[in-house]
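Form 12-C: Joint structure prediction
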Amino acid sequence: MIGLGDQEKRAVVLYSGGLDSTTVLHMAMDEGYDSYPISFDYKQRHAVELTFAKKSLEKLGLLGRWKVFKLDFSKVKSSALTDSSIEIPKGRHPDEMGDAIPVSYVPLRNTIFLSYAAAYAESLGINHVFIGVNCLDYSGYPDCRPEFLESMEKALSLGSRHADNPGSSFHLHAPLLHLTKSEIIKKGRELGVNYDLTWSCYDPVVEDGMVKPCGACDSCVLRHEAFDALDA
Amino acid sequence: MIGLGDQEKRAVVLYSGGLDSTTVLHMAMDEGYDSYPISFDYKQRHAVELTFAKKSLEKLGLLGRWKVFKLDFSKVKSSALTDSSIEIPKGRHPDEMGDAIPVSYVPLRNTIFLSYAAAYAESLGINHVFIGVNCLDYSGYPDCRPEFLESMEKALSLGSRHADNPGSSFHLHAPLLHLTKSEIIKKGRELGVNYDLTWSCYDPVVEDGMVKPCGACDSCVLRHEAFDALDA
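Section 2 - Result
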């Protein structure tokens, strides 16, 4: 029997190496959670984020605990992040990004991520899972909204050992849910996040033997706007 | 934009090559669903089931449409199906199996399976997903119960493009949910299922260069009991 005791303050943290999840990892640690970072290798166009993830984890002394799950999205088409034949929009002002589901949406990606995170957590007897979604800057992603997270928390609990333990359940923590990108960075700076070790770009370019952010995809634009607003 | 039209009677069918899911595949086809079978290769102890899956699909003319997703369960311990160091109980009478969660339970397996099935379905513009769970013979699995399926259907819909399409949602079909194993086989025989091409055993043995069911694990016992009851 695997212990499900809530008394242990341990958490699995979904950690991509991006700005948001790096901040979340620091927040979880600051809140006293013994943290188990996990990442996903799904042949994403921006797999370079995993190199950044590794750098931050080295600095935090958590590299030995890091797990990377390989996911098979090869048969799930229709996302610009996993299908290089779909173009990533460039040079859009945040006002132009709108609320529509963007081409970078990967079908059910966070549902799959959270299912894996919960499976891994359950196998370790951990009840807490942190995820760095927010519903302000990327309002177009259905799997970044509060109603999805509530519903997923319930499904995960009912589909696991928690179902047979009255009062026991998974707890999904999404501390960035209602923060703007600038507020996230502000919070992270207070906690000592080194944002130079985070990656946001969806469409990395290779130049002079270096991998660089494109500077023009939605993710780059939102990142730059947020830093500009803070440092103005 | 991907069409989400319910008018098209197409379905993704979770299909392991086992007795239950083979029956479900036949039921979906009998109900007029143009069916897209998917399977999972998660280094399960009984991966031989995929060979059986292939045989049945050849017979049904669906082999060309079959997709097998590779899943990484290497970091999710605690199940006898994915960890060969955990022993599979043998020779238990169905009355001894009880309602407790069995060692063959793989943490959140059906949650992960359904998330992938829905992601694949969404990328094809399909709203219907069939799954061969039942809550009678295997009452110990939390992810085979009606309350889990309802909750998961909601989470999948809220985490996908359906969220932005009023009135649109995923439909999870679990036509075996309240059937006994004998009733499932009876139904399958009416639909022409060849059960010689299905695999149930959790712990295959190799003898004389052949892979054979062990005959003693819970899954073998329940299968034999069901056939015996029908053919008595």
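Section 3 - Comments
Chain A has one domain: 10-231. The domain at 10-231 of chain A is CATH 3.40.50.620 (Rossmann fold).
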